Each structure stands twice: as C-alpha cells, then as structure tokens.
Amino acid sequence: MSSYFITGANRGLGLALTSHLAQLPASQVSTIFAGTRAPSASGDLQKLIDSSGGRVVHTSVAITDRASIDKAVLEVDARLEGRGLDVLINNAGAMHWVPEGGIAKMDNLREAFEINVQAVQNTTAAFIPLLRKGSLKKVVNISTTLGSIAQSHKYMWGSAPAYKITKAALNMLTVQYALEYEKEGFIIFAVSPGWLKTDLGSQSADLNVEVGARAVVDIILNSTSKDVGAFRNILVPGWEKTDGPNQYDGVNPPW
C-alpha cells in the first residue's frame, strides 16, 4: 500500500496521474495526496476526491512558497500517522512562450526557473525526511525531451526557450539528488511524459493525456535502482518509430 504526493494535481497530467493511480487497487496504492495551489479542489478533482473513498486527499500547496510547502508536509505527515511517504511526483510546471523576436526577447527566464526548478528543489528538500521513512523512497520529476541539449535542434520550432532551459536544469537537479541519495535507497529520476493534449501542451499535441499518464505510472511502478538518475521516455505502442520529432519508444532520451 503505497502513498503518493503529486503537485499540480488539479488539471492536465497531474489530474490524469491522480485519476489513474486512484483506479489501482487499494492494496497497491493507499493514498494519493493531490497538491494544488487553490484552497479548494477544482471541479474535476473534487469529483475524483468524492468518489475515491478517502484515498484521494486534497492538499493546498503553493510550490513557489516554501512556507506553504512546509505546511503541506506537516499535513501529509499527520495524515500518514507515522508512516512515511512513498512517492513524490514533481509534476507542476509552466511553459513560457516568446511569440516574437526569439531568445533575445525572452523576459520570463527568472519566473520559469522559480516554477520549473526552484519549486522542485524546495518541494523535494521539504519532503525528503518524510520520504526517508517511506518504503519506496521514489522521487519522480516530470521533465521533457525539449530539455535535452543533444536533441535541441529538433525543437527549434517551439519558441519556448525559458521552458527548454529550465527543464535542462531540472534534469541536472534530478541527477544531483539521485547521486546524493542513492546510498540511502532512494530512486530519483526524470520522466518525459510525451507531448500531451493539455492546457500546456495544446490540442495539437501527439497524445491524449490519459495515455501519457498511464505510461508514466507504468514507469513509476516498475522503476528500480537501475533507474537512479535516469531520464526516462514513455513507451506507447505504435509510436516507437513515427515520423516527426517525437518517438515514444521507452528508450532513455539523450541528455
């Protein structure tokens, strides 16, 4: 019976991850803490909470506010009644576009770092003591192949340089945590969930969000010590060798 904390759980991938985990047997997933900024859950999340039999628990957290994160940790700790948290999924993020003028006109890098990197640092650091008491000790950072330096030429069409830069930084942050906490039995890695039809990804994206969520959960459930510090790509049958920039073949993307 594993417990999960998911940031950005009120919509998009975060909501889909919460929903998919809640469909698994209670003997496999006991509690899902759905972290959102709003003091009350969104409509879709609230419906999921109401139908979960107490397994999905809303937790208010503003990931850019360390005091709010610390308060969320205390709430989760109290709810777990002495048990540790098993899995932290750092899902919340933001994509900042530069519609005209290219990278020289980028004026949102600081904000992007605060959300996509600093918030993950603060959330992970705050939850480490609770994860240390858990049985799985997994931290999963939702990244993207747009943060791959080796593949950057493939994504020049996407005018979101701050997003790409900060996700590359997130990948390095992931590796630093993985290397430091591996000796304590932690399994810390990054996952690219694919280009998904969400508010962030747009309706022009490759995959329905439920497909990406299911593939990410499969990776989390089957992850082992061999995944420490890895950058994982999802596996979606039929997308292994498609034309275009994105292939979902389950092979680790290059950094």
From TrEMBL:
It holds the Pfam family adh_short. Coiled coil: none annotated. Belongs to the short-chain dehydrogenases/reductases (SDR) family. One of its GO terms (cellular component) is cytoplasm. This is Uncharacterized protein. One of its GO terms (molecular function) is oxidoreductase activity. SUPFAM superfamilies: NAD(P)-binding Rossmann-fold domains (SSF51735).
